[in-house]
Amino acid sequence: MVAKGDLVCVEDIKGDNRGCLTDNMEVNNNISKDRHWECVKNETFLEKRDCCSNAFRYRTIQDPASQRLTWYKPPLTVLVIKKARDAAVYSPFVQLVQWLIEEKRMVVFVESAVMEDPLLDQFGAFSTIKDRLMTFKLGKDDLTDKIDFIVCLGGDGTLLYASQLFQQSVPPVMAFHLGSLGFLTPFRFDNFQEQVNNVLEGHAALTLRSRLRCIVIKKNDSKLENGKNAEESNVEKPTSFLVLNEVVVDRGPSPYLSNIDLYLDGKHITSVQGDGLIVSTPTGSTAYAVAAGASMIHPSVPAIMVTPICPHSLSFRPIVVPAGVELKISVSPESRNTSWVSFDGRNRQELVHGDSLRVTTSIYPVPSICAQDQITDWFDSLGECLHWNVRKKQKHLDELTDLTHSSSNDTLDSLDRELNDRE
């Protein structure tokens, strides 16, 4: 049986796979009951053979409001991530952690660096719960299957950091706005108890924010492209990253133009001559990409955005390609310099001639919990954070003291004549 809708998010604990099931994929009915959550859609069900036979006749469009958070059993563990080096976050952090431990009886994970922060010792409440916190270190401890959901206190950077912590399946993320911009953090901290309770009870909508899987293949790793694995070829395994916003390829410190070849599913599309190239998710379309002239895409749209950075061409416009394609980016053989690549602003490294970057849509999205719903949250962020379409209202003619008798049939010439007659 398959869902009639486009998207159903499920999790298989055995393989730790959570992804999007489309009309031509079967749902695994043997999913482990140990999982704590899933994203469900209320849709009618069709036999798989019916979907396949009628695929050419119609296409079902997903309703964004149909993605809801459902817990199979009450969540027990929560990861709390706070913005670093911000004194305004300390008090909310202590209040939240104390409430989760003492009132909700949950196991709370925090970064090990939090325990070493001397400013937190100024809060008496923190000393009473400090010994009951679980800690982890980035790059050393694996949080897979240990966390039921995540709470972020800060700005958009805290959500990006949470995405970085989970390079496969990501628990649902609840982000409180305690940072600067807060485009991705829809919750306000004033009544955090009520809002967290709503999430724990499953009264919340979800936005599945797609991520990009980026694989850097070095020149010496060419044997891997010929079907051999790293062990057989005696070369280093390609570096892989998952990004929530964008991967950026630029000219670095070089004074020369970037000369980058862009391939889509193996076909050469174009060569980028300019300062660089941005490959972004719909979530990242409102970040660096929009500053470079790209359109803003709702995070539920399955797409990849390709945006040039200051191209030396008047006709090179940003483009949107399907989410299922593979992009390959490499330094052109004719390029005078190398390029540099960064992943959500981190892990910056050089791409030399012969290196390549492969970009595809990951099967592991970031399930972001909505304060209201997918549509309202996004447009509220556009208005509050980016002041989208903010303009002083044009006055109605009745509000103009010298034009009180005009009608919809009046022209500028007739209005001018009327004013002249009055004089």
From TrEMBL:
Family that this chain belongs to: Belongs to the NAD kinase family.
Keywords assigned: Kinase, NAD, NADP, Transferase
Pfam families: NAD_kinase, NAD_kinase_C
Cited SUPFAM superfamilies: NAD kinase/diacylglycerol kinase-like
Classification of source organism: Eukaryota, Metazoa, Ecdysozoa, Arthropoda, Hexapoda
EC number: 2.7.1.23
GO molecular function: NAD+ kinase activity
Protein name: NAD(+) kinase
One Gene Ontology term from the biological process aspect of the record: NAD+ metabolic process
Record keyword NAD present: yes
Domain of life per record: Eukaryota
InterPro entries: ATP-NAD_kinase_N, ATP-NAD_kinase_PpnK-typ_C, NAD/diacylglycerol_kinase_sf, NADK
